[in-house]
Amino acid sequence: MRTTVDILGVPVDNITMNEAVNIVEDFLNHNKVHCVFTPNAEIMMEAQRDPQFKEILCNASMVVADGAGVVLASKILKPVLKERVAGFDLVSNLFERFSNKDVKFFFLGGKPGVAQEAYQKLLDKNININLVGTRNGYFSESEEKEIIDEINSSKADILLVALGAPKQEKWIHNNKDKLNVKVCIGVGGTFDGIAGRMKRAPKFFQEHGLEWLYRLYKDPKRFFRMLDLPKFMFLVVAKKIKLYKA
Which domain holds residue 122? Predict the structure, then answer.
């Protein structure tokens, strides 16, 4: 039985990291495409502005709290989410679970060469996943059929899509009925992180919900995007006292 917490109208699964990995593994036994999304506070705010995007999140098979802000929101709105399930960590745990197994992965997105770099980094760590194909994220709408045919021909089980939100979620939603994979996951900058092109925040920042502060320090241009964080918390409080209906 799926248990979720309503965060501004988006049902977020109340699960641990280990439970999330187990659920994805179970999805592989189903004869349908399951969509997995990992929203943080910025993505939740985008969902408030874009009803179509919000509907896509609401119809996903699994939605996990990527950001500490989403977990904090659950502490205000109740019930409290068990833990943060960051998208990067979820994918990393899936790679470890399926290392040296027959589960087939396809990487879609990122800059040219990044997916292969990420795969090589995994091999360097003795994480031997079955990667059956890659395609960078620079393509036109006219190329989509060719890409979908390539994914289907690869017989991939899990498709990781790194196009950035909300583009990746919309791409998955619009094309899921044409895909023969079992699981599609929107993974944002995960390939860059694994490849070492984008450094993650130190453990201290991760454990204290301060990754946003580290990212802002590394990239001050993110300042205006970061304004969504206080806006998100304002709406959470407004919903709690029934001044905002999501």
Answer: 4-190+198-240
Q: Which tokens in the block code for residue 101?
A: 């197994």
Number of domains into which the chain is organized: 1
Mean pLDDT by 10 residues, the chain (246 residues): 97 99 98 98 98 99 96 98 97 97 97 96 95 97 97 99 98 98 98 86 72 69 75 97 91
What's the CA gap between 26 and 34, in Å, rounded?
10
Residue 246 forms part of a structural domain: no
Residue 43 located in a structural domain: yes
Who's near 21: CB < 8 A, 6+ residues apart?
Answer: 90, 93, 94, 97
- Enclosing H/E stretch for 148: helix 144-153
Residue 114 in any domain: the answer is yes
Whether the pTM exceeds 0.85: the reply is: yes
